[in-house]
Amino acid sequence: MFFYVLALWSLTACQQVEQQAKVFGRYVPERKDDFAWENEYAAFRMYGPALAPENPSNGVDLWLKTSPELVVDSFYYREHVLGLPYHINYGKGLDCYKVAHTCGAGGLVVIADDQTWIGGPYDRWEILEQTPDKFVFKLEYDSLLVAGHVLQESITITAEAGQLQNKAEVVIFGDYEGELLAGGGIYLHDTVDYHMTIPEVGYVFYEEDALSDKTAARMNYEYNGSTSQGRIQISVKTPGATLTDIVDGNLVAVKPYALGDTLTYFFGATWSEWSN
Question: Pairing between strand 194-198 and 243-247?
Answer without folding.
Answer: unpaired
